Each structure stands twice: as C-alpha cells, then as structure tokens.
Amino acid sequence: MRKGDKGGLAHWLDREMGDIWGGLDADLPRSLNLEDQGRFVAGYYHQRWTKNNTEGGDAPQDDVIETGSADQ
Fold first, then answer.
1. Do 58 and 50 form a contact (C-beta atoms < 8 A)?
2. What is the C-alpha separation between 29 and 16, in angstroms, rounded?
3. How far apart are CA 40 and CA 43, in angstroms?
C-alpha cells in the first residue's frame, strides 16, 4: 500500500487511525475482564454481520464456529 512518500492508501489509513485514536479516552484499559471480553466479541461479530447484510452478502464463512461432533 505504501509506495514512497507520494501518499496513497497507506497514508490515508494512517490519518484515519490517528483520528480514531485521537477521539478515544486516554484511560483505555489495557485488558478486559471476562464479561467485557464477551461484550467486545458480541459487538465485533454484530458489526461484521450488519456490514455484510448491508452489502448484500452472507455472514463471512471464516467466522463460523461449529460445535459438537459431525455424528450428531
């Protein structure tokens, strides 16, 4: 993405990330307790699912978690 100092996508992404980090509180926790980890995961997958549905696609296949055995 980065080709010299001409700018491009990498520079744009760097600026966007800087804007996002600048808007966050300075006292973000370095780790999350188990309950907060669950909230994060639920929110993350909700965002991915919502984004895919608005683009007309299905849920990403690499995110499917299978439980149980195939014999059931």
1. no
2. 22
3. 5
Q: Retrieve residue 55's tokens.
A: 């683009």
Question: Cα separation of 38 and 36, whole Å?
Answer: 5
Alpha carbon distance 9, 35 (integer Å): 36
> How would you write the pLDDT of the chain (72 residues) with one tens digit per residue?
556 666 678 888 888 988 888 888 888 788 999 999 999 999 989 888 876 676 655 555 554 454 554 544
Its pTM stands at: 0.39
* Torsion angle defined by CA atoms of residues 43, 45, 50 and 55, in that order, rounded to the nearest 10 degrees: 140
